[in-house]
Amino acid sequence: MHSASAGKRLTIYVGESDSWRGRSLYMSILETLRQNGIAGATVVRGQAGFGAHSLIHTWRIERLSMDLPMIIIVVDTPENIERALTLVRPMVREGLITLEDIEIVKYTHRYLHPLPADLPVSAVMTRQVTAVTPDAPALEVTELLLGKLFKAVPVVDAQRRVVGIVTETDLLEKAGMPARLAVAGRLAEDDLRAFLSQIRREKTAQDIMTAPVVTARADEALGHVVQRMLERGLRRLPVTDADGKLVGMISRVDVLRAAAGAKPSEAEEAIAPRAGHTLGEVMIPQVPTVRATDDLVDVLQQMLQGRFTYVVVLDDEGRPVGVITEGDLVARVAPPVRGGVLQALARRVLGREVPRGDVCARDIMSEHALTAPPDMTVADGIALMLREGRKRIVVTDADGRPLGLVDRQALLAASFGE
Asked: Are residues 156 and 241 located together in one domain of the fold?
């Protein structure tokens, strides 16, 4: 279903010859609305009509002196419409103003469509795709995904028809994988063997895969596929031909790369929305943060209580200086502590065996949090994220303090006006 929001429609009826300070009234109203941040307005020129004076005005050529009705339609949030009404009411000395409650189903800007919605999926998808058969052991699937940028693999039958997909969540919930793949990729050899030993040997791809799987057709319009991804919260979809055979994968990052004007990926890459055309308008206002001096246990608590997979590290002035992911937690703590951290991440509870006072956030963070101002456009945000190879941007105020977060899902949604 489409998400909808409450809005109001302001309709203003004036005459074509009406003026305001020596300029046509309807153009003066448009300019006033534009200068005051109203989302948009449309002027419709009537073909014929009559008003309070009961004179019929028409566009017919034989009438040389015309005063046709001009209709200005404004749709925006209730707050903005109230502000618009305050601005416009004194300007309309003779005319009609109406106000209606409406439901806004979709709102987008034309310049937020860098990628045509009617483009075929085949023009954007990743073509070189790794797949497994239903009888592939869960351990083999886990090993296949280790160290890769993609975090899911389609399952195909003997005719290469897609019958399911194994995701990181499937491995965690159904195969006994103790922590995320990003964590496993940071483990030393001995720890990695212990990690893999917990994968249930009797499980196969067929046992743990998500099925039926949501797919996209290679000849399908990209706009329809992106809508499906957004509505279902999916990060990637297998792409099939007319016979249901796997021909590619399309992920959020594939769409963003194409929106930024880059070529389709030849190697599969992996990568949650508000309408708007700047980062400030589409950002998520919640930012999981810790101080650089906070203890390792404080970092874990922030992650686990909010079910985040990362936290932003702030300096004494509250400015972002780094990011800590689950992988950082595992890779950068000493081996005696690592087991407790892994257990906490796996159980999503704080293990008592994690000692306090040995490690602080500054010791384990990845330096340089990617930041941007709230007035940066979505297009520039996409380019920045792709250029830096990051998954999220911290939106900061003029003093460099966090206002919100923008991730790939938010940018994907904004690019398609959802």
From this structure: yes
Which parts of 59-159 fold into alpha helices (H)? 78-88, 138-145
Number of domains in the chain: 3
Residues 158-197 have pLDDT tens digits of: 999 999 999 999 999 999 998 878 777 666 677 788 888 9
Contact 203, 142 (CB under 8 A): no
Structure tokens at 236: 């990637």
Domain residues for the domain of 339 are: 279-415
238 located within any domain? yes
82-140: per-residue pLDDT in tens? 989 999 999 998 889 999 999 887 665 544 445 566 789 998 888 889 899 999 999 99
Task: Report whether 133 contacts 161 (CB < 8 A).
Answer: no
pTM: 0.51
Residues whose CB falls within 8 Å of the CB of residue 144, separated by 6 or more in sequence, listed in order: 130, 132, 153
Q: Tell me the C-alpha to C-alpha distance, in Å, between residue 311 and each of 85, 148, 232, 288, 322.
A: 43, 22, 25, 5, 9
**Nearest-angstrom CA–CA distance, 82 and 98:** 12
Q: Is 285 helix (H, G, I), strand (E, B) or coil?
A: coil
pLDDT at 36: 81
CA distance 225 to 240: 12
Q: Do 167 and 210 contact (CB within 8 A), yes or no?
A: yes
Give the pLDDT score at 117: 67
Are 246 and 363 within one domain? no
